[in-house]
Write a structure and sequence with these properties.
heterodimer; A: 354 residues; mainly alpha; 14 helices; 77% helix; B: 267 residues; alpha/beta; 12 strands
Chain lengths: 354, 267
């Protein structure tokens, strides 16, 4: 029979667990606040510096602000900053799912070549001027990016499943994908018309400069459609972290989970890449920070990854405007400077103990 | 709430399974395993023990028939399987940023379990009760990535037990445990079989422990049954020589089987 002492201990542990859950909710709220601050900072920085008060007025009290500043905030800075938030959230969510689904801490759309595949798909659509009946041109580039991205994740998944490859094998294969698709993009640049070429160069940089309201709407729609499905799979993904055989024995159709997750990853990565080019390492760094802060209960990990991704991206965007005075660096350069050291640290981490 | 009614014995007949082109189980049949019994699968490496457990769990494709009462398990969807059977693999991934408690909760939340749905409080209470029985209550809030090999094995066992399956399949559940916990887990498994009428089939390597704690022992060799019966019938000097290629003596006394291994035999 159960001892009173043991029951008291059980009560203490359960209260401790509930406290941790409450703390995680608070942490998510705090991250959201930081995200908003970073977003406002992003709007306020630029060639003509605006105070946060100006930004606030520009967003919520437009009649209080002179017309030129209102135009800068509403037409230039706001779409740019919103794009940073959405791209960061999308890539980081994709990275978090990818790391779980492939059981690989080095996985992210950028490191495994999914972003490269997507940018090849986008470049293909631009250079060949692809079009489909009933598909608006705004959608054609992301759609083709998605098709190539999905093809590449299917390849990666098949490789991850064959026991021969292992974690490192998948990463090496991903690097091979990066090289392959970058070469193919270079080939397209070589044969591209002058006009298409100028468009293409921007893929290789990764820049927020082309944020338009219609692009923003497409990306926001993709994130809004994908997110509920991600969150619904949170319990299954948490159980998958306990091992594939175990998860299946707990009744999870792992094959189906993988497939649907890879669809989501492709949609998120491809749409982001189609509008801003390949921005590296957000999908790697964002989830790792979220995991360190909140653990791997995916109910918390997935939203937290989106928030960390959005925060890093906004801050990187601020840095890209401040690092060299008067020059707007492509934001992909900044994220790579943050991401490469993290990537190396993950590779050099001490081996698993047995 | 859907409950799956399936009493009756576990019957394995004519089961074949392979890895790629290598046959692992060859037309294997086992006399009915009765509800509430504790059965150990023993045998040399690569005899097909894990494959048999995974086939019963629906994780490895197999031909033939595995029935629980009237139900054909090989034709059962994964979700229905999971209401009846839980399989504990040999290993638990190492770098998992979940606590012991979160791992057990994860096992409960993964898919519906048999019985009425649990409230949030019941779920936590049930998870903690299992963690206490396994003897790692003090580690409930510790991360799985901070456990020793033995502690991880106990956490893994708790994840399997919490689902309270009809059939519990354990793949080397005590391989990383110290003497105290080896016996503790064996006792726990026997108690659960008696209390809940749970059938336990486990792979063990330690013949003395298998003999001491099992109702029945099935010796597998080359994907077929080499011996099957109560411990003193299944573990004999002849089996030691034929299956393990070792010379040994097996004597029965008041404390059970005494197995003394002398030397290895040339193959």
């Amino acid at each position: 029979m159960e001892q009173p002492l043991a029951l008291a201990g059980r009560h203490t542990t359960i209260s401790a667990y509930r406290r941790i859950l409450r703390r995680r909710v608070l942490l998510l709220a705090l991250m959201a606040v930081i995200g908003v601050v970073a977003f406002l900072l992003d709007i306020s920085t630029g060639p003509s510096a605006l105070s946060l008060a100006h930004v606030w007025a520009g967003l919520f009290q437009p009649d209080q602000l002179p017309a030129p500043e209102l135009t800068i905030i509403r037409e230039v800075r706001l779409p740019y900053a919103l794009m940073a938030v959405l791209v960061g959230a999308a890539l980081s969510l994709a990275g978090a799912e990818m790391q779980t689904i492939l059981n690989n801490p080095l996985a992210s759309p950028f490191t495994l070549g999914v972003s490269s595949a997507a940018s090849f798909g986008a470049a293909l659509a631009i250079v060949l001027g692809l079009s489909l009946p009933f598909v608006p041109l705004d959608w054609m580039v992301p759609l083709n990016a998605f098709l190539l991205a999905f093809g590449s994740v299917l390849l990666l998944e098949a490789l991850a499943r064959s026991r021969a490859a292992g974690v490192e094998g998948v990463v090496l294969f991903g690097i091979a994908l990066v090289f392959t698709f970058n070469a193919l993009v270079a080939l397209l640049q070589f044969i591209a018309s002058q006009e298409a070429l100028s468009q293409l160069v921007f893929w290789s940089m990764g820049s927020l400069g082309r944020a338009t309201w219609s692009n923003l709407a497409v990306l926001a729609l993709v994130v809004a459609v994908v997110l509920p499905f991600s969150l619904r799979a949170a319990h299954a993904m948490t159980a998958l972290r306990l091992g594939e055989d175990r998860a299946r024995s707990f009744g999870i159709d792992v094959r189906r989970l993988r497939f649907t997750s890879l669809l989501r990853i492709s949609a998120l990565a491809a749409t982001a890449v189609a509008f801003v080019g390949t921005i590296g390492f957000i999908g790697l760094v964002g989830p790792h920070i979220a995991r360190m802060l909140l653990g791997e209960d995916h109910r918390f990990l997935l939203p937290a990854s989106m928030l960390t991704g959005a925060i890093i991206m906004s801050m990187a965007s601020v840095a890209s405007k401040l690092l060299v005075p008067g020059v707007l660096l492509p934001v992909g350069i900044v994220t790579s400077m943050i991401g490469v050291p993290v990537f190396l640290a993950l590779i050099l981490r001490r081996p698993e103990r047995t | 709430m859907k409950t799956v009614s399936a009493g009756g014995p576990l019957v394995i007949s004519g089961v074949s399974a392979s890895y790629g082109r290598t046959p692992v189980l060859v037309d294997l049949s086992v006399a009915p395993i009765l509800p509430g019994s504790v059965v150990s699968l023993i045998g040399p490496n690569a005899a097909g023990k894990t494959t048999l457990l995974r086939a019963i769990a629906g994780l490895h494709p197999a031909l033939g028939s595995i029935r629980l009462g009237e139900r054909e398990l090989l034709a059962l969807p994964l979700a229905d399987h999971a209401r009846l059977i839980t399989y504990m693999p040999q290993s638990l991934p190492q770098r998992v940023a979940l606590s012991v408690l979160e791992g057990v909760i994860g096992a409960l939340r993964a898919s519906p379990i048999d019985g009425p749905p649990l409230s949030d409080h019941e779920l936590l209470d049930r998870a903690m009760a299992v963690i206490e029985r396994v003897g790692i209550a003090g580690l409930a809030m510790t991360g799985l990535d901070h456990l020793s090999g033995g502690q991880r094995q106990l956490a893994s066992l708790a994840q399997a037990l919490v689902r309270k399956p009809r059939i519990l399949l354990l793949d080397e559940p005590i391989s990383a445990l110290d003497l105290h916990y080896q016996l503790r887990v064996m006792k726990l498994v026997r108690d659960l079989a008696a209390e809940q009428g749970m059938t336990v089939v486990m792979v063990l390597h330690d013949l003395s422990i298998a003999a001491r704690w099992s109702d029945r022992i099935i010796v597998l060799a080359n994907g077929q049954v080499a011996a099957d019966g109560p411990p003193d019938m299944a573990i004999t000097a002849g089996i030691l020589a034929d299956v393990y290629h070792v010379a040994g003596a097996v004597t029965a006394d008041a404390h059970g089987l005494r197995i003394v291994i002398d030397d290895i035999l040339a193959r």
